[in-house]
Design brief:
The protein is mainly alpha-helical and about 140 residues long. It has helices spanning about 20-30, 35-55, 60-65, 80-90, 90-100, 115-120, 125-130, and strands at about 5-10, 15-20. It is built from 7 helices and 2 strands, in the order E-E-H-H-H-H-H-H-H.
């Protein structure tokens, strides 16, 4: 049976390794030991939040937030989980993130907001949800 380990890549994006070979998974885990334990835990929570959002897994996203994932965590492009959820049109994930207090008007490295990503990808329902929650044009 394959096991999966989530991690934060050097470029800041979430990553995962899945293998049925326990030696490979152990070697991977050993390679991540250089960072302080608390930082690794935080990185894992944040990466798991981004993974849950990308998979539209509401329960897992909620669990990661409840476990301490940073709601306004950013990927290497400065995007938040709300930007990703808006990009894909995941309404319930957007509602969860808004209810937990995410910065609705946060801008990525290129100055784009969650509302921009919703509009850019014709996710009109998400755009309306964001505007109703106070997102600025």
């Amino acid at each position: 049976m394959a096991q999966t380990a989530l991690f934060n890549r050097q470029d800041g994006n979430a990553g995962a390794i899945s293998t049925a070979d326990p030696k490979k998974l152990s070697a991977f885990k050993l390679g991540t030991e250089a960072r302080p334990f608390a930082q690794k835990d935080q990185d894992t929570l944040n990466a798991s939040l981004f993974a849950a959002v990308s998979q539209n897994n509401l329960e897992h996203a909620r669990n990661q937030l409840d476990a301490g994932a940073i709601i306004n965590a950013r990927d290497s492009n400065g995007r938040t989980a709300l930007m990703d959820a808006s990009f894909f049109g995941y309404r319930e994930i957007c509602r969860l993130l808004i209810s937990k207090g995410i910065d609705i008007d946060a801008k990525d490295n290129a100055g784009r907001t969650a509302l921009f990503w919703a509009k850019e990808n014709c996710k009109n329902e998400i755009g309306e949800l964001l505007k109703a929650a106070g997102a600025r044009e």
